[in-house]
Amino acid sequence: MGTIPKVYDLKKPGAASVPLVVDSPHSGSLLPEDFHFICSLQDIRQSEDSYMDRFAAGAPRHGAAVLRALTSRAYVDLNRAVSDLHPDVCAEDIPWPIHRSKRVQYGMGLIRHLVRPKENMYAAPLPLAAIEHRIKHYYEPYYAALESELKAAHQSFGRVLHVNLHAMPAIGADGAPLEDVILGDHDGHSCARMYREAVKKVFESHGLKVVVNHPYKGVELTKRFAKPRQGFHSIQIEVNKSLYMDEQTLALHDGFHEMQKVFDDLWKNLATLLAPQESEMPKAAE
Predict the structure, then answer these.
(1) Closest CA to 71 of 43, 29, 113
(2) What is the CATH number of the domain that holds 57?
(3) What is the pTM of this model?
(4) Mapping DSSP to helix (H, G, I), strand (E, B) and coil, where does residue 269 land?
(5) Who contacts 159 (Cβ-Cβ below 8 Å, separation ≥6)?
(6) What is the rounded distance in angstroms from the CA atom of residue 122 to the CA atom of residue 134?
(7) For 159-216, how does the pLDDT look when each residue is reduced to its tens digit (9 = 90+)?
């Protein structure tokens, strides 16, 4: 399968840590040697959440851990379950249960098989071994790293907030314009309302229009580890690409610097909200 590049980058807090873990699973752009797509490179790039990892870059200064994928989501989509596979993407029978959701039907499963309706990603279905390779060497290491960070923060503080970063097109699949920011918490099942409202308040304070759970409620990464009653909270943030970049050329515009200020404010506010109270601070060894 060729050389396996570094799959993810993990930045630890540069200050006293708080129970905040940020991840950007779709902003990677590396194209592995065995990624033999037949669509245009522009199609690949437009499928990525370009630059979202830059908005997370300041979070460690406020005590958060930041995990970012380095490989393009077009190669393997880290925000999908292993069961999110279309049978057309594989040349053999897939030996585990698969779930043909709407996303999978549209070609946007764990392994994409369509660029757009009736336009294939690959010249022919992939061997099962190629799919298993992507799961073992790209997908599973990312999930293991995220789980490790979440558990470590929870063990230290008794709670943790996971913020899952994404970018969305200006126009939705139905042809209607999307809002500035969409927050997803699986209809309240993955995150306590107080955390969701705190995030919402920051974006709104900067004049941005925010909606909740429509049309994006969150997918695998905000579902896998979320257990609010046990102190594991997870929320997805979708940012409209047009706020900071040209979707066709992928060039940044002046809005990028404004969005950086918004996210710096977000990390600062969440760190303050999540900072341990004096009664929660670990006691010094006697």
Answers:
(1) 29
(2) 3.40.630.40
(3) 0.94
(4) helix
(5) 19, 231, 232, 233, 274
(6) 15
(7) 999 999 999 999 998 899 999 999 999 999 999 999 999 999 999 999 999 999 999 9
